[in-house]
Amino acid sequence: MTEQQIQSKRIKELEAEGYYVIKLIKTNKNGIPDLIAIPPNSNVIFSEIKTKKGKTSALQEYRLKELKNYGFITEVFSG
């Protein structure tokens, strides 16, 4: 199996157990693992950052709603 196949298998397993799984492609921290598996009803906050004039895209709105449905705290933060 390739690493990608193994990763897909693990994502499916974790999601079947109720986790919300995020595959990280590029982060501001080197060495971060490939996946984040967040259990239901945790206190994780997902923050979308915008300028005062910035607007969320339809996809961003969808993701924020999706995360709220999983029980996470979400926000659109403008400094």
Features:
single chain; 79 residues; alpha+beta; two-stranded parallel ribbon; 4 strands
Q: Based on helices, strands and strand pairing, what is the structural class?
A: alpha+beta
Main sheet summary: 2 strands, antiparallel
Distance between the termini: 45 Å
Shape: globular
What does this molecule look like?
With 79 residues, this protein is of the alpha+beta class. It folds into two domains: 1-40, no CATH class; 41-79, no CATH class. It is built from two helices and four strands; from the N terminus they run αβββαβ. Strand 3, helix 2 and strand 4 form a beta-alpha-beta unit. The chain starts with a helix and ends with a strand. The mean pLDDT is 92.
Compact summary:
This protein starts with a helix and ends with a strand. With 79 residues, the protein is α+β, with helices and mostly antiparallel strands.
Mind sketching the topology for me?
Layout: H1 3-16, E1 20-23, E2 35-38, E3 45-50, H2 58-69, E4 73-78
